[in-house]
Predict the 3D structure of the following.
Amino acid sequence: MNSITPTVRILFLFIVLVFFSLPVTAEQKETPNGTTSPTLKKAVMCESVQDGLPVDQTIVFDVSKGSAYCWSDFDPVSEDGIIYHKWYRNGELISSLKLAVHPPRWAAYSSLRLRHADVGPWSLDITNENGEIVKTLRFSITE
């Protein structure tokens, strides 16, 4: 026998709906030099970027696709700043790309041209201008 009354169920659902509809506030982190780091809202690996948005999100890239992209969205961005996309193959830094971000919100992306020699595990660190890792994405390149 179910001891939960319909009124209690409705009240519970109402509380859950209210909780999940509350806005999520992102806290910006102050860096040692007194500036505020932009807040990473979303970061994905994808097969391309069109009209500033990621297309075909994936974590496995076939060499025949030609390129791998990392797209990152920062919101809020309180002041002009710099972030880095650092591409690693088997733990070895292959490329570090400096990307500008601007208020109030900014999306940036970088890409890697795929070669047969690139097959294997990869990772990409998104760092702030002080080198602090904001997010690490892992992916693989296959033949």
In short: Helices lie at 6-21. Residues 11-28 have pLDDT under 50 and may be disordered. The first strand starts at residue 40 and ends at 50.
